[in-house]
Write a structure and sequence with these properties.
There is one protein chain. The protein has 213 residues and is an alpha+beta fold. It contains 6 helices and 11 strands. Strands 7-11-10-9-8 form a 5-stranded antiparallel β-sheet. Strands 1-2-6-5 form a 4-stranded antiparallel β-sheet, sandwiched between helices. Strand 9 and strand 10 form a beta hairpin.
Length: 213
């Protein structure tokens, strides 16, 4: 079943994850794209990108929406026309969306790869990870932190926001499956709940803006 996982975070918030195994032709069936999005698909050179794009429209259908219900602002952030909140992600053969009626949300999927060790200094103080048992554990934890910061960036969606200087993710254990984070930018503080899960060498992280902010 291409629908890989559904997570009910609350009565108002759900996450849908898709594993893209179908052909582009199969994914195109029963998907009606706006002219703008059809042009986007036509311009994609990568078949995998086209399949991922189409799979996201199937996820939207599962959550009660069509392509025409989605639009993007000037920062590239997706919005739903009914005022509910949505965030979208894809990485290789996995795609996901999070939809919420009550909270601003962000989601990110990342493949766990050792190249994250080379860029870690750009988004987090790497010395904080020296106590972990092995390189594999460091890669896993860095991927969660990166995914958390990506998710928060998708929510905040303002130019000039720095992963390293402005976004702080509280420490966590793998067993927790959750943590908290905050953004301090231009004197404004906002706080977030962060959840994560791992599967098939991938990490999915999603963030929810605290309602009291």
């Amino acid at each position: 079943m291409p629908l890989y996982k559904t997570i009910t975070e609350s009565n108002n918030t759900k996450i849908y994850i898709w594993k893209v195994t179908e052909s582009e032709a199969d994914l195109s069936r029963e998907v009606v794209l706006t002219p703008h999005c059809q042009n986007r698909v036509n311009g994609m050179k990568s078949e995998m990108h086209r399949r991922a794009f189409l799979s996201i429209r199937h996820l939207m259908s599962l959550s009660g929406y069509e392509d025409k219900d989605l639009y993007y602002d000037e920062m590239g952030k997706p919005h739903l026309r009914d005022g509910n909140h949505i965030s979208i992600t894809h990485s290789h053969e996995f795609t996901a969306i999070i939809v919420s009626k009550s909270q601003q949300v962000g989601i990110d999927i990342e493949k766990q790869r050792d190249k994250i060790l080379k860029i870690a200094y750009k988004f987090t103080p790497i010395e904080e990870y020296r106590t972990l048992a092995n390189t594999g554990a460091i890669i896993r934890k860095l991927t969660i932190v990166w995914g958390a910061k990506e998710s928060l960036y998708k929510i905040y969606s303002k130019g000039g926001l720095s992963f390293l200087r402005h976004i702080d993710v509280q420490d966590f254990s793998f067993q927790q499956g959750s943590t908290t984070a905050e953004i301090l930018y231009k004197g404004e503080l906002s706080q977030y709940a962060v959840k994560f899960l791992e599967f098939e060498g991938f990490t999915c992280v999603y963030a929810l803006k605290r309602a009291d902010d």
